[in-house]
Amino acid sequence: MRAVLHLDRVKVRVLRLDRKGRPEGRVVEIIERPPQPIIGRLLQEGGIWLVAPEDKRYGQDVLIPKAATGQAKVGQVVVVELTELPSLYGQPVGRIKEVLGELDDPGMEIEIAVRKYGVPHEFSAACLDLTRSLPDKVRAQDKKDRVDLTDVPLVTIDGEDARDFDDAVYCEPSRVGRGKGWRLLVAIADVSHYVESGGVIDVDAYERATSVYFPRRVIPMLPEKLSNGLCSLNPEVERLCMVCDMLVTSAGEVHAYQFYPAVMRSHARMTYTEVAAILSNARGPEAARHPDRIHDLEHLHDVYRALLQARQVRGAVDFETTETQIVCDDSGRIEKIVPRVRTDAHRLIEEAMLAANVCSADFILQSKHAALFRVHEGPTPEKRETLANYLKALGLGLSISDNPSPAQYQAIAQATKERPDAQQIHSMLLRSMQQAIYTPTNSGHFGLAFEAYTHFTSPIRRYPDLLVHRVIKAILAKKTYKLPVRPPEPPGRFKITKKPAPGAVAKVVKPVAAGLDASGWEAAGLHCSAFERRADEASRDVEAWLKCKFMREHLGEEYGGVVTAVTGFGLFVTLDNLYVEGLVHITELGGDFFRLDEVRQELRGERTGIRFAIGTRVRIQVSRVDLDGRKIDFRLVTEGTPLTSKGPAISGLKVPPPSRGQRSGKGLGKASAPQRAAKSPIQALKAAVKKAVAKGKGRKKR
Predict the structure, then answer these.
(1) Which residue has the higher pLDDT, 388 or 573?
(2) How far is C-alpha 121 from the chain's CA centre?
């Protein structure tokens, strides 16, 4: 392994199987070695200059000749380009290509992440030149063959910190057939009007595939003149848009729809907080600021309730999960981590966007045109079996069939939401599902219970949405959209997006030229799916860095938390109020020997029967923070009484009835009844071990 680096593609010969049946082998050939910069800190040890990689998967330091250090200073974060590859008897050698700065500089975590994950963060000169030549506002010739909606009071509803506005909505009561209903308009920024297919802006957008969101900074898919200017539906200015115009019945079914290009003018830029306040009190101060919008918002709320009713009938899966937001100060330090509160304002926009996405998928299918669908398949047979065994072990009386439906998942979620272990059950339901991907083969969306689904509503920040807009425009013009021919990507740029089934041979996904329809759309789907994962990984890496820096200031402090994951080596605990996750290693759980019960997803003590499962409430102490490894270690606190239950979380530690020996009090000493009641199970265990050791009757087991 000394001769290979992370991301190298190698040929391996299997030599043996270990005790658990896992194959062991050796590297016999290095097939591909993609060019990759290494980010790390410049160090000097014994007169030798070297860079310690920030990504620990590289496994060895890079030697730097004195003449190749450039202007870098000891301790700075640098980007290294390899000049000599590693061998069995020699370390890799490189030269410093770029100096990023000091480790504690504001924004350093983002600079590291964009290079570590290969996120393009600078637009090409040709792209910027073409962007500068674009107009600053909508011109008369741009309005040709478009519906004029400037008098329709469309509004944008986003978060307070939103910078680009790519969707606007409007709703009014309408007759649908013989019954009552609503006319719902969803207007989306017409990015495809300004970004020519195959042009230099399109090339940069395709390479990024998505915008990447970090705390305090966004790496946009499009240049700022487009993302925050021409394609942003800012209030009181004309903007080009693509409209999904729908008639929705009182039962929440889309009775009819049509797509058309239009020109609009947003009548207000509203926030979720403002809209929620208006919907809860139509005579309050927020409503007084927007008196002309009150009735429109009430109509939106009405159509939302109808769409929500249809969602429930459809059986779409809807888990209530806690999303968090990191609030930083001007220097980039975390001030606080707060939960994102979802209100009806969030949900009505979400349902409106879902309706538009479903209509776009149906429109493309009816036209039999190739496009990228957002596909979310049901659980694999292995995951389905694991979930079924787990539900059976709990004795819920609920299970899933061999071909489960979203409604079965939702039924289990609804039936267990009031249970103390609801968090554990819902976590297992989520883990059994597959990841959603982009693909030209429509297989439906399992989680949302849609037969066909696309992404149409965010072309500013997602490339698949831009492709869907181009396809819809081509269909309206009675033409066929052809993907531009793109050169093959360099080797090693793509990752495997779907985990192979056990025993299957994993295939490395290679990009292909997108000139042929079938292979081109397949390659575009793989590209967008892989780079969506890349963006998520980079965002999580930055958040983990910030949380580690934040927790370094709280070493030794005690917090309450909930077990959110159980592994063979310990427990992952998420702290109350802080929403930071760390590891309690299995050696910190006391003197018992703990085994992992994979069916029940819990650690169980062989001697005491103490159980730690997802949802167990514990109290911990912050013991160690590894900034480079993005790891936080906790120590289980045994002093004092366990925390009481809050909501659906499990109260204290789950302890089974005592065995016959325990009922007799054997080995527990002669503590009084009040003392025994005040002790936690771990306290009792430690007291027993300590007493046994003192009397020479036993020894502490590790």
Answers:
(1) 573
(2) 20
- Measure the CA–CA gap between 321 and 234, rounded to whole angstroms: 31
**Does residue 688 form part of some domain?**
yes
Angle between helices 200-208 and 463-476 (to 10 degrees): 130
Residues 385 and 373 in one domain: no
CATH number of the domain within which 626 lies: 2.40.50.140
How far apart, in whole angstroms, are the C-alpha atoms of residue 133 and residue 201?
A: 12
Q: Are 311 and 407 in contact, with CB atoms under 8 Å apart?
A: no
Strands 77-84 and 147-149: unpaired
In this prediction, residues 362-367 reach a mean pLDDT of 95
Provide mean pLDDT across the span 353-366. 96
In a domain, 542, yes or no: no
Round to whole Å and give the CA distance between 296 and 275.
11
Same domain for 213 and 344, yes or no, is yes
For the stretch 163-186, pLDDT in tens is 789 999 999 999 988 889 999 999
Domain count, the chain: 4
Question: Could you tell me if residue 311 is inside a domain?
Answer: no
DSSP notation for 374-426: EEB----HHHHHHHHHHHHHHT-S----SS--HHHHHHHHHHHTTSTTHHHHH
Question: 143 or 325: which carries more pLDDT confidence?
Answer: 143
- At 57 the three-state DSSP class reads helix
Q: Which residues pair with 155 in a beta bridge?
A: 169
594 and 656 inside one domain: yes
Residue 551: count of CB within 10 angstroms of its CB: 23
Do residue 156 and residue 300 come from a single domain?
Answer: yes
What does the DSSP 8-state code read for residue 587? G
Tokens of 219: 């790496």
403 and 370 housed in the same domain? no
- Using the structure block, give the residue that is written with the tokens 């929500």: 308
Nearest residue to 623 via CA among 680, 597, 585: 585
Say yes or no: 604 and 642 in one domain: yes
Q: 406 lies in which domain range?
A: 381-431
545 within some domain? no
C-alpha distances out from residue 345 to 157, 298, 580, Å: 8, 11, 27
Beta bridge partners of 497: none
Rounded-to-integer distance, Cα 261 and Cα 190, Å? 8
Q: At what angle do helices 517-552 and 463-476 cross, to 10 degrees?
A: 150
- Whether residues 282 and 386 fall in one domain: no
Beta bridge partners of 626: 631
Q: CA 579, CA 591: separation in Å to the nearest integer?
A: 29
Q: Are residues 480 and 340 in the same domain?
A: yes
**Domain with 51 in it: what CATH number?**
2.40.50.700
Give the pTM.
0.82
Residue 139 CA to residue 236 CA, distance in Å, equals 16
Cα→Cα distances 321→275, 380, 417, 531, 576, Å: 22, 23, 12, 25, 15
String of b and e for 323-339 (b: at least 16 CB within 10 Å)?
eeebebeeebebeebee
